[in-house]
Amino acid sequence: MKKLLASMAAVISMTAHAEDAQGIWTGSIANSLHVTVKFEKTPEGKWEATMSVPAQNLVTKVDDVSVAPDRIGFALNKLRASYAATWNERQQAWTGTWTQGRTAPLNLKRTTEEAARPKRPQEDAIAARPASYASTEVAFDNAAAGVKLAGTFTVPQGKGPFPAVVLVHGSGSIDRDGSVFGHKTLLVLADHLSRQGIAVLRYDKRGVGKSSGKLKEATTRDLAADAEAALRFLRGRAEVDSQRIGVIGHSEGGLVAPLLASRDPGIAFVVMLAGPGVRGDRLLVEQHALLARARGVPEAAIEKDRTMNRALFAAMVEEPTLEAARNKAGLILAEAERKGDLPAGLGASALERFGTPWFRELLAYEPAPVLRAVRQPILVLNGERDLQVPAGLDLPPIRAALADNPRAVVKEMPGLNHLFQTAKTGGIEEYGQIEESFAPAALDTIAGWIKSTVE
Length: 455
What we know:
- With about 450 residues, the chain is an alpha+beta fold.
- It is built from 15 helices and 19 strands.
């Protein structure tokens, strides 16, 4: 009888401290890095979970999900990370530990879809107000590459034909709306331009959204060919004045836009947003150092990282083949692990990121010769607080390269970061926390310059 009562007490205790994991949970790793985890059960009864880290632009399915009434756990194998927690009835939270080389506390509390959604007033305003332009789903081909690209074409109301622009994305798997860090940067830019009387074509990168192709196999020059296909599409539209078509490129797109203009005199104007002015290997060494400093990394560690990156990127550029470059880079990363300058096991994942045709081409790309060949009007904007393409490093060589172009305008925008948001530090961790998706001052500068140039 005593055993039966004890068993019943155990069941009652377990029930009192049980929780249904299904739903959305939020917390901060070490009280600093905000994360959201959504647990779902499939119709077959299998548990799945998706983790979002806005500050790192990460949304991913997790691995090895385990769920019980009083505990949860999962792994993120590609980051060599894991999480395990138990239900705390008093705190109404999963209290647990995040492990990724080192351990840190991570407690998850229930939230809602609406509460978890970051505030984006510019995007909410676009959704709420009546559109002053027509928006059409379109598709066009880069026939040479066998790629079909899907996008959105917005045309102002009124009598055309209108001036028009192609929007070219930065690096990464970016869709037509420029969805990064919880923002839709290209949607906000396209809306502003089309309300100012400018037709806009924005599209999903190859291999992203509704566009075909494989992004992992594409280099910057391949992506430039996709942008050329977008230009051909615009030139065939009756709503567009074919003599007033330009290209706006952000970040990596800031390399693509002047490249297209340098070989196509029919392009009427170029806008270069946070586009690099120095060779890729030099830029990325400084970018890594600036971002690390913004995270509070000690100067000694930054200098070690700078030394390793210089050697690593030089190997990627100087070796005659990609295979040889990967082999040499692998030796450098292995030595960094042996010396303790790189956490054990991270060399292989770093090599996968760096050892690609796209990255190798980017490291060796020198913007100045292309910029010197641009004869069209060109607007160059960089944010004062941009730590990825810093204005102090990149604008002087851009100005020098454009010195013989009387229609070049080069500006540093006060207080803006790489995404052209009004920022405090410029660090990547800020991007998702800032409510503003695109600073109105930058939007007005772009639209005003285009209108004055094409009128």
